């Protein structure tokens, strides 16, 4: 696999070719990765995969016209062809008055922050196989588990590099290690219920043991046996942290610069206004050591820094790349995504002050949701409707499993009616504590 230094050199070479052909500006994004994945099922090896890939994307600007071309051929001749093709395409492109590189004076200068994203580990397939087998064995050992959909273990390493004609050049490596198990449990009526558990980390030393992951998958599957359909009506809904993060994902789409500039967001008029319930604060932290979405610079070469998107319920900032910032008459926020658009890093909602048990203690009838199905969010209106499964809450206690129901509301109302518990853990790219949302509409029986 290539090195960060070689990745930078390739990106710089592509930019140099474009400017030599007359481009007013150009940037090049390079990415390379290697990965090994092993899957097992019912105690036997099912598949071993090894993948390697690299590609370079060159974007050129001629005035307000631009074009992007990508190649996986990194030879000198291929880079010459790439630059020539990009220039010819740009000359025929439609003008976009907002297009262009990030302002030169905003680019990251000096050494990027050390985020400890690469553990340098090279994991053998046999090691991954043994981890997957151990996870599946632990899951199948849980009383009530009747079959397995399998377990998998993966190890990967990637390098990202970016160079611009305005003078930025940077690269960084990241590793990822993951382990997952998925099993089935048969209920009294013969129906099978599935559930799973997984864990992903940057450093293999931080990965949970196969036994922990497997047992968690088995316990979850057994708990879901013989689900009922809840009654229909308006009631409180508790979002397990596994699925509550999706509510924050909808927020980031709604406050992205392109959506605001187009006027296609349900939060387009809410900057500086109350969006969430008081006391709720949401952070974006690209500098979290070993974070799953940590990064030293954004997709345009701008420095990134921790920020609060929501403070005490108030919307504090849009997510702006250079193009949307120009269109809105604002400054970019360091949230440019690779290849265009906007992207966040390690998002998290601050923990609340009450336990999950206290959060449900006064609920006479409601739902604890552990699985969501479908993509039922309207980004223009905020209307929200998802298939759901989980558990019934009766008289302050979690009782029977539920399935085949729909939960619905509007995100503007849901955000204002949200209460976080105190159980925040950092396990994913987006992390939230257990969340309670009042007055959602349930379609069940």
H/E series:
HEEEHHEEEHEHHEEEHEHEEEHEEE
Query: How much β-strand is present in the residues?
Result: 35-45%
Strand order of the largest sheet: 3-2-1-4-5-6
Report the total helices.
9
- The CATH homologous superfamily of the largest domain is called PmbA/TldD superfamily
What is the CA-CA span between the terminal residues?
56 Å
CATH topology of the largest domain: PmbA/TldD fold
Summarize the structure.
By secondary structure, the chain is α+β, with helices and mostly antiparallel strands.
Report what the structure shows:
The chain has 445 residues and is α+β, with helices and mostly antiparallel strands. It has two domains: 4-223, PmbA/TldD superfamily (PmbA/TldD fold), CATH 3.30.2290.10; 227-445, no CATH class. 23% of the residues lie in helices and 36% in strands. A hairpin with a 5-residue loop joins strand 5 (169-186) and strand 6 (192-201). Helix 1 (4-20) packs across helix 2 (76-92) and helix 3 packs parallel to helix 4 (210-223). The chain is globular. 44% of the residues are buried. The mean pLDDT is 96.
